[in-house]
Design brief:
3 helices; 121 residues; alpha+beta
């Protein structure tokens, strides 16, 4: 993250959060059942748009995916706490599934910087 802030280029450094689901077919004694596991990523990009690193999360199927939401939010808050300079840009990439849109509406749009409590762009 320090490297992103210290880099040269015409873009702002970016923290990019991604979230998606993976449909799993489970065979049971009653037939097939489909469940959605969840995945999440958080990447840091420098001023040239070069990805400097990515962290990955994955969780087993769970209604509403609260474990993923909690863990992803904790990682985002940790990254923001460790960001040494002003946060330039936070982006969210998803395919707009129900859980993914809900996470954006309930969590990300209301997220404030953990150190300054300022709204995040």
């Amino acid at each position: 993250m320090a490297a992103a802030g210290a880099s040269n280029g015409r873009h702002k450094p970016v923290v990019c959060v991604g979230r998606d689901g993976i449909t799993l077919r489970l065979r049971t004694t009653r037939g097939s059942l489909y469940e959605v596991a969840s995945t999440g990523t958080i990447s840091v990009y420098d001023r040239r748009g070069t990805r400097l690193g990515t962290g990955y999360l994955a969780y087993t199927p769970e209604p509403g995916q609260p474990t993923m939401s909690g863990a992803l939010t904790a990682v985002i808050r940790d990254v923001l706490t460790r960001w040494d300079g002003p946060l330039r840009r936070l982006c969210y990439v998803t395919d707009a599934g129900d859980n993914e849109r809900g996470y954006n509406d309930r969590v990300l749009r209301r997220l404030t910087h953990p150190r300054t409590e300022a709204a995040i762009e």
